[in-house]
Amino acid sequence: MNELSRSARGEGAAEADAGPTFAPLYRQIRALLMRGLQSGEWKPGEPIPSEVELAARYRVSQGTVRKAIDELAAANLVVRRQGRGTFVASHREVRAQFRFLRLRPDEGEAGMSGPPEGEGADEPAPGMVMISRVLECRRLRAPSEIARALALRAGEAVVLIRRVLEAEGRPTVLDEIWLPGSRFRGLSAERLDAWHGPLYAMFETEFGTRMIRATERLKAVTADRARARALQVAEGVPLLLVERVSRTYGDQPVELRRGYCVTERHHYFNELS
Amino acid sequence: MNELSRSARGEGAAEADAGPTFAPLYRQIRALLMRGLQSGEWKPGEPIPSEVELAARYRVSQGTVRKAIDELAAANLVVRRQGRGTFVASHREVRAQFRFLRLRPDEGEAGMSGPPEGEGADEPAPGMVMISRVLECRRLRAPSEIARALALRAGEAVVLIRRVLEAEGRPTVLDEIWLPGSRFRGLSAERLDAWHGPLYAMFETEFGTRMIRATERLKAVTADRARARALQVAEGVPLLLVERVSRTYGDQPVELRRGYCVTERHHYFNELS
DNA sequence: TAGTGGTCTAGACCACCGT
DNA sequence: CGGTGGTCTAGACCACTAA
Predict the structure, then answer these.
(1) CA B29, CA B60: separation in Å to the nearest integer?
(2) Strands B103-105 and B85-88
């Protein structure tokens, strides 16, 4: 079956349909594995086949499979666990909880209501529990600006969620979340209220849509009347606007989110290297 | 010479001073290479020895050296160039110019005065040329807050640079930059004015201090009177405050920077994965 | 052509995990 | 114990760069 092109080594046969794309073997393996992830052959939280089995299946050495998996692990698509296996990454895991949550409480007493207990190193644990209050969840036709960001045709169905995140009982983030209607049929305020845990975990388990990458643009804005009221702050207060486009496999955009953050007691954390 | 502990394989002798630290061979190699970088044995822009030479020097296989260098390359400490060699990363290279500059012009006509010409892929080229206007550069004793961030004793000498960055002729960023005085002797407004190019390139070549990592905290604030005047905006305008601590080898903090950004025509860009 | 990094292999052994 | 990922080796060959 699986014919891989031995990057100009002429070993593997059948150069049929692939076209003139020459990638190293391990990248071809990586692509095959990614297809398996995208198609749901292996689901979040489940193990993928072992390195030796994959090596046998694709008729390559274990080292080559290993390098392919290394890259998937670096991209957080997969998690290796020594002695156990390699598992499809999931937003339900604690490790992934804070990968897309960059807002953290300023140091000091605040925000320490629920620090991850046993954790040792890894990243500085934000240890923040935010309560979500859904203001509304309704379906409408995409404004052109939203459609463009989500790669939809203008007027296609989208879901709009508006919610407030509270930290320590104080409204802290006002979110406007736009999702393509086709992927999120049946999403409603009730189901959002019923779900306990990260939103992305819900999207993953309930709608089979897993966010793997996002780009964000940040600006400083002032609170208009409506947003000021929702956040229980004075009109004109400076807010941190975080505009995010999240993408799933194939780099397809599946979420546009605008978060208006009160940065009185919190900050957006980033690391450059 | 170089005795490496063969991670519990008992091959390498002399377990003398190292203590009970067991790291894989390639990590020990990595540490040795890092020491070479830190000590200036190989300088920014220069090549480090070839993989085969390093393998011979440390008495390990080329694959082990390779894995060590892979990690250094992933951390942007070193740049691989096929057919040429492996080079110490430098802030003078174009590739590194925008690694620490996350402010980008909003799309549209603006900011296209000097796009990197030949570039093809890599990262979305911000293509922004900002002019630096130094307001002042003076030496003083560190306020306790600054001293803490720079791991100095309160009252030690520090350098304070205040400057404005202009994009398209408009003041856009007001920077307050704090540096440890001991590392930056002889730094003055005149030398800053004389230097053309990125600040970090100057720090690297003129003061032998190379920034390799930084953490940033972002908040939204309002322009007070002084900052509003410096940025030529109205008092009360929302500004994006970017507070950065940059570190050099050994994770030693060597810069505290507060940037107040006008985000009318620009945004802070970030990528999550 | 010689030297560099990049790919691929095959096999050995280690560290860790569950049973 | 058997199976998994993690480390290390030795050697072959490829792709690229410069002299």
Answers:
(1) 9
(2) unpaired
Cβ-based contacts of A270 with chain B (< 8 Å) = 102, 215-218, 270
What is the rounded CA–CA span in Å between residue B211 and residue B222?
30
- Structure-token pair, residue B96: 């590194």
B152-171 per-position pLDDT tens digit = 999 999 999 999 999 999 99
Tell me the nt nearest to B27, Cα to C1'.
Answer: D7
Are B266 and B259 within 8 A, CB to CB? no
For residues A206-214, average pLDDT: 97
Q: How far is A267 from chain B (nearest CA, A)?
A: 5
Q: Do A263 and B220 touch (CB under 8 A)?
A: yes
Distance CA B43, CA A68 (A): 33
Question: Which residue in B has a C-alpha nearest to residue A264's C-alpha?
Answer: B219
The pLDDT of residue A256 is above 90: yes
- Return the nearest residue to C10, CA–C1': A61
A6 CB less than 7 Å from any atom of strand D: no
**Burial zone of A81 (CB within 10 Å; 0-12 exposed, 13-18 middle, 19+ buried):** exposed
B51 CB contacts (<8 Å, ≥6 apart)? B62, B65, B66, B69, B86
By C-alpha to C1' distance, C5 is nearest to B82
- Map B8-61 to HEC letters: CCCCCCCCCCCCCCCCCHHHHHHHHHHHHHHCCCCCCCCEECCHHHHHHHHCCC
Distance B208 CA to C18 C1' (A): 52
A213·B273 Cβ contact <8 A: yes
Contacts of B100 in chain A (CB under 8 A): 272
Distance CA A23, CA B48 (A): 28
Q: pTM for the complete prediction?
A: 0.90
Strand B78-81 versus strand A252-261 pairing type: unpaired
